[in-house]
User: What shape does this take?
Amino acid sequence: MGNKIVTFGELMLRFSKEDKKRLSQGRMFCGNYGGSEANVAVSLAMQGDDVEYVTRLPSSQMGRAGAMKLRELGVGTDYIIYGGDRIGVYYFEEAASLRNASVGYDRANSAYYYLEPGMIDWRTALKDAQVLHVSGITAAITQPAADATFEAIDVAEQMGLTISIDLNYRKNLWRYEGATPVETLNRMAEHADVMFGDVIEYEFITGHPKIPFLPDSSDYDMNLDAYRRWYEDLHQRFPRCRKMMIGMRNEVSSSHHFLTALLWTEGRMLNAPIVDIPQVVDPMGVGDAFSAGFLHALRRYPDDDQLILDYSLAAAALKNTIAGDFNLSTEEEILETMNDNYQIHDVKIYE
Assistant: This one.
């Protein structure tokens, strides 16, 4: 087993209108690549990790350009397979004042849409890996894509890798006949060694009502006892999982958010500070930035769970200040954010 992190999912093109225009306004779209698992891969590469991204892309200008962009940012693309006619697309209308953000998907018949088990040689793709990271989105597009996701998980388990799962429930994606997202996500969670999700996603898979998080300042008093009881229930449901994260966000307005997270590990619950983000630039990919920050810090600081959690939250907070899906923050910038905002002055950058 090596030291590489492998992520698996669908790379997409994102189109938005500039200056927070509605999709029906203006004549020009701004485009960039994104997708949850690709976002994690880029963020890990920016922090100095050896990371490989696996997907299926069309052998077209846009597919090849997507792989080129990942390589430009330090992500390995050796095990991307090519086929099909098009790359998946999503349209993101940014929030503004009282108007909420909205997302529209155009992923049907993409190269990834026709992915099936057996197409990817997982033993070769994972041969130098320590961690496999997938998400609920990986399994949401088609039944064969879900089967391919579990194929990857099964091989990774046989090879002794750490399995990282981001629940990433997107109700608008589960369209194929016979799709049972609750059962599929629970099945994925049963394989997790490390698991990420927000309160809505954990509520969805367990039926446990979410606990309100409505801060108007960083001094908000959270009901930690209620979260502790919730975590005890989650631990009973998913006893294999060594570390479970719950992320929370309160959107005071389209550009003013509060962010925090909790970690369950070895029977203990740890909480991070509540971060006030008064000028959100782009909220897409914040959860992916947290996941990547956690996977990076877990290997950097394996004996300090509080530091791992705080580092992950700082990575997620920084993503709010960066346009596009990718978190382009380095380890040094994330640590500086921690030191400036959390008064943790003894954290050093390890060579």
Q: What stands out?
A: The first strand starts at residue 4 and ends at 8.
